[in-house]
């Protein structure tokens, strides 16, 4: 019997022990977790149902359903699969494989000059293209491509994460069968109405003790990937300002012009974001960042990306992905094949990507082996709810002892 056809098991939250906080998103907390019945630890995303974040439950269920779909067939090497999920009156949580290498933004900050070499960019882009190709083939438009959402597995290969903004498109009834529409968003969004501006800042939500916990112990650090490159260069310790905001249409600096114009959300938005990502990996900054959202959007709509130095295959690829008119963008007509055929990838053996044994960066093996100790997840959240005490804060102290919040 095909093991992939077996539905992912229900997780028993009572059996799970968290040994580390891997990150904190707008809607949930991601823990490194182990469970008696499994050999390897895994990543567990927990969304509190009482979350102040609007639509947190709906987004969580959507993400689980996408992961479930991705897990129904043989798992894709550069996409996560659902290990299990669970829901009770307090939480929705789900488990995916742990990626100990951190995300591409954290990794970029570790490089000299905070940029990747063209060879490294080529490797990561190739894997990301394969992941997007698979998603598009399933009718899924990702809509949230950015370095923070590209994680590095133990093997050094990548995994795309965070599917809560992804949408399933259906082939349009009339016209060209290559065109898809979003059943939920048939009507174009002209401008994000104010009340739908689900800005995804990392906001410490509860008492001051948590605030201190977040800053001191690096929870925000794990989320530092959202900090704009410029502000981080000025003050690498300042994680409080200029975080990348993520509205319901995606992260501002990565949003495609047609989304701002309200012309639709087709697959080409992912190819646009790939161009922005590629530019950021090459130059250490995104191409259209303005002082505020309005200016960023204006630049996305009107400005051409600036390139430094002589044009080359990589700048040519970026230029073709950052084509404002989606119908003229690389990838629009024939999807990923058009991009794979670009000169920048000449000679690349796409079929052998997974066989690459020495990807550019290999995470060290340490906490991925931890299968003992840890904290009960329900307890963790209960302690966060305790009122702050000026003299003694049990949640803070205990959490400090129980979680090793070292950076990746
Ligand atoms: N499988 C994993 N392995 C290691 N770290 C992970 C894993 N999944 C998530 N993380 C970490 O947790 C962080 C938050 O995860 P994720 O982006 O899925 O949460 P979110 O609540 O959806 O955030 P967002 O605000 O982007 O929507 C990631 O940036 C990453 O640092």
Describe this structure in words.
The protein is built from 13 helices and 14 strands. The radius of gyration is 21 Å and the shape is globular. Strand 10 and strand 11 form a beta hairpin. With 408 residues, it is an alpha+beta fold. The strands form five sheets. Strands 4-5-3-2-1-14 form a six-stranded antiparallel beta sheet. The C terminus is likely disordered. Helix 3 packs antiparallel against helix 8 and helix 8 packs antiparallel against helix 10. It starts with 15 loop residues before the first strand and ends in a 6-residue tail after the last helix. Bound molecules: adenosine-5'-triphosphate. Adenosine-5'-triphosphate binds next to strand 1 and strand 3. Pfam families: Pkinase (PF00069). InterPro entries: Kinase-like_dom_sf, Prot_kinase_dom, Protein_kinase_ATP_BS, Ser/Thr_kinase_AS. Its EC number is 2.7.11.1. Keywords: ATP-binding, Kinase, Nucleotide-binding, Serine/threonine-protein kinase, Transferase.
């Amino acid at each position: 019997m095909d093991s992939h056809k077996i539905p992912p098991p229900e997780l028993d939250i009572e059996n799970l022990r968290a040994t580390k906080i891997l990150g904190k998103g707008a809607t949930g907390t991601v823990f490194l977790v182990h469970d008696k019945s499994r050999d390897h630890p895994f990543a567990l995303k927990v969304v509190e149902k009482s979350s102040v974040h609007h639509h947190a439950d709906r987004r969580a269920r959507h993400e689980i359903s996408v992961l479930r779909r991705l897990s129904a067939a043989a798992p894709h090497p550069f996409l996560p699969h659902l290990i299990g999920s669970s829901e009770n009156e307090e939480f929705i949580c789900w488990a995916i494989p742990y990626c100990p290498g951190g995300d591409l933004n954290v990794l970029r900050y570790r490089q000299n000059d905070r940029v990747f070499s063209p060879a490294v960019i080529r490797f990561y882009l190739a894997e990301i293209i394969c992941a997007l190709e698979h998603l598009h083939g399933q009718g899924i438009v990702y809509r949230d491509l950015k370095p923070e959402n590209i994680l590095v597995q133990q093997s050094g290969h990548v995994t795309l994460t965070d599917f809560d903004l992804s949408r399933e498109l259906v082939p349009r009834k009339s016209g060209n069968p290559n065109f898809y529409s979003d059943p939920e968003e048939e009507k174009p969004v002209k401008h994000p109405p104010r009340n739908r501006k689900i800005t995804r800042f990392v906001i410490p939500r509860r008492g001051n003790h948590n605030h201190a916990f977040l800053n001191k112990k690096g929870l925000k650090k794990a989320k530092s990937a959202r900090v704009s490159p410029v502000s981080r260069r000025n003050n690498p310790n300042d994680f409080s300002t200029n975080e990348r905001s993520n509205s319901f249409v995606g992260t501002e600096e990565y949003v495609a012009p047609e989304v701002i114009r309200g012309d639709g959300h087709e697959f080409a938005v992912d190819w646009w974001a790939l161009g922005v990502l590629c530019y950021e990996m090459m130059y250490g900054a995104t191409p259209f960042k303005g002082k505020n959202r309005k200016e960023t959007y204006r630049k996305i709509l009107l400005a051409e990306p600036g390139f430094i130095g002589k044009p080359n295959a990589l700048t040519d690829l970026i230029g073709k992905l950052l084509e404002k008119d989606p119908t003229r963008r690389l990838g629009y007509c024939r999807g990923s094949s058009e991009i794979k055929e670009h000169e920048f990838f000449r000679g690349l053996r796409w079929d052998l990507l997974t066989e690459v044994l020495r990807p550019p960066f290999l995470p060290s093996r340490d906490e991925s082996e931890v299968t003992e100790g840890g904290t009960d997840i329900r307890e963790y959240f209960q302690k966060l709810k305790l009122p702050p005490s000026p003299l003694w804060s049990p949640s803070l102290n205990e959490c400090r002892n129980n979680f090793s919040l070292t950076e990746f």
